[in-house]
Amino acid sequence: MADIHCSWAGTASFGRSVVAWTILLLTSPAPADFFAFKHLGEKKLLQGNPLAQYADGVLLVEGPDLQHYTIEPSDLLDWKDKGRAVKPWGKDQLRTELKRSFGNDFYVQMTSHYAIVYNTDVAFARQAGTLLERTYSVFRATFANRGAFQFEDLRQPLVAVVLKSRQEYLDATKEELGQTLAWSAGMYAQNTNRFYMYDAYEGNLERRKSVALTNVRGASSQTGSGLDRESIEVIVHEGTHQLAFNFGIHDRHAHTPVWFIEGLATYFEAADPKSTDGWARAGNLNPHRLDHLQSIFASLPKGILNTLATRDQLFYDTKTNGDAYSLSWALTYYLMKTKATGYIRYVRLMKARGLMPMEEETRLEDFRKAFGTTPAGLEDDFKRYMVGVFAAQAKGNLSTR
């Protein structure tokens, strides 16, 4: 699993039949209710906004920190209508509540758009915050320059949790990750709306300083950020997930195709040892994914793009998830370079679909509406394009095409 280090974790409600939804509230602000319920084995009291209810009685509730709670009927202890909206916490209150909930061993650093919660050294946390802010700016600019996508406003600073050890990371994310994704080095969790990662050098500044940013072909360079390649890619990858789910490109509870979710994150993630801050920015080649794709390219079965676009199973099988990530990056790269208008059209189709079902035929129809053909119809041209990319890579042109 060394070639895959990032993940996103869907909500507990993700995957339920959308037919079962009974939408309680469609507009904002919503009335704020008081809830008492069992959560992770303990009683939890919450004043929040009910978002939706399943036909089987399961509730979806949003708290003032924008965390979402899926409450089973058997876990619901009390529910009282308070008749007024709970607004998301502002910067100061969010910082206070994060400090209280994480405890004295943690610090909270506020940036323009983020709250960085950390217990590793302050330099690493600041570097992570700086890179997240750059990701924010580049992400917005990328879509503003491609079809004037209408972003939803951030309702609250985004929370990133930077832990000092891998064990602390696994402990903090075990409810979302379970054992199947315990290999990951970072994750965005839709329920908590938080990004989690850990410091691979566990606060050891000397060890971190001694590590050069190294790409997959062995070239290395010390960058101004001082971050290693994997940390850069985790921060940007998971930061992209978090932005996409908060700007309205993805819906936190929709059945969004995983190739679209992961393709977008890998489109942004690539580290670059030649860059002053170690990040290649969006739209440059991703050598890490490109090398993996080239290693499997000759053996790709006919119809692989249809499989990738209509079924998510490739991502959940340890034998194929590395292939799925690289293919998702390559398909996104190809579409953004050659069919950018269609890609923005696809983004808008996904946003408009919301909680509607996403069966295979529906996925194919959405793809066809956006790009004028099915994934299978693009496959030959996609493969020709990628052969050209491989040739450009062999000549040392690893920036753009």
What does this structure look like?
The protein has 401 residues and is an alpha+beta fold. It has two domains: 310 residues, Neutral Protease, domain 2 (Orthogonal Bundle); 67 residues, Roll (SH3 type barrels), CATH 2.30.30.520. It is built from 13 helices and 14 strands. The chain has a six-stranded mixed β-sheet with strand order 1-11-12-10-9-8, with helices on both faces. Strand 3 and strand 4 form a beta hairpin. Helix 2 crosses helix 5 and helix 10 crosses helix 11. The chain is globular. About 8% of the residues have low confidence.
Strand content: 15-25%
Number of domains: 2
Helix content: 40-55%
Please report the first level of CATH classification, the CATH class of the largest domain: Mainly Alpha
User: In sequence order, what are the helices and strands, one letter per element?
Assistant: EEEEEEEHEEHEHEEHEEHHHHHHHHH
Descriptive keywords:
single chain, 401 residues, alpha+beta, Neutral Protease, domain 2, SH3 type barrels, 2 domains, 6-stranded mixed sheet, 6-stranded antiparallel sheet, 13 helices, 18% strand
List the helices and strands and how they pair.
Elements: E1 6-9, E2 21-22, E3 32-39, E4 42-54, E5 59-62, E6 68-71, E7 76-84, H1 91-102, E8 107-110, E9 114-118, H2 122-144, E10 158-163, H3 166-177, E11 186-189, E12 194-198, H4 205-209, E13 213-214, E14 220-221, H5 229-246, H6 258-269, H7 287-296, H8 304-310, H9 313-316, H10 321-338, H11 340-353, H12 360-371, H13 375-394
Parallel strand pairs: 1-11, 9-10, 10-12
Antiparallel strand pairs: 2-4, 3-4, 3-7, 4-5, 5-6, 8-9, 11-12, 13-14
Helix pairs in contact: 2-5, 5-6, 6-10, 7-10, 8-13, 10-11, 11-12
